[in-house]
Amino acid sequence: MNSLHGAGVALVTPFNSDGSIDFEGLANLIEYQIEGGMDYLVSMGTTGEVATLTKEEKKSILDFTAEKVAGRVPLVAGFGGNNTAELVAQIKDFKNPAYQAILSVSPYYNKPTQEGIYQHYKAIAQATDLPIILYNVPGRTGSMINVDTIIRLANDFDNIIGVKEASANFEHFTRIMANKPDSFLLISGDDALTLPMMSLGAVGVITVVGNAFPKQTQRLVKYCNEWHYEEARKLHYELLNIDDLCFIEGNPAGVKEMLQELGVCKNYVRLPLVSVSEETKRKIALAVNDLQAKTKLAEAN
Asked: Any idea which residues are catalytic in this one (predicted)?
């Protein structure tokens, strides 16, 4: 799965002021990502506010994204849920050939045991021939996919090909790398930890910040993959304030404000999310302008 090495972006879903999907904004965002050098795009992840979308809206976004990308970069589709039977039915119904893989978050709210998590992913793996990326994000799901469960799934199912890790647990990352099959991918799910995770052997990131700054995010990952860690560290520190502001009042409210500041798409979110405060808007405007100025200076030199 070399197409999933590098920088992938979990796309936001742009909305209009009335809450409807802003397909013009989504088209702008897709072009912005491709022009910025993003290696692959992830549609319908958490950052896409998928929990607030209807089944019909999800399908329309997946189809629209595939049409606009038109094969220029690989695509990953997000399918997650805490009703295994319903999720399996959705995946079986998914027939869009433009997508190369599925990203599936661990079941949330139910707080299953490790055996429950294993059986959940087993059902998904047996429902599709597409490669599957596990998504471990205990801060959102309320449960952890333990290392033993990840390795068991990696060994038992050929189409479970990687894990997006957002647990912020470096012992956990290290043990995955030490015990995984050679071809199994460790992918950062936390922008601020991409550089240190890649030093352990992660192959890249599925980014939030990259929605607003695809060029810088892709360059950071490229530096790490080429072992140019001095350059990577400099860019890592330049992005830290942006990373913080993306999440200070929730994702994707922060990055959507950045995208509006950059003129890519509007900043509307759906309830229960709300737009960031005026104070955070001010901080974001300053941070965006500062990073743009640093990028222009670096490119000029």
From this structure: 135, 164
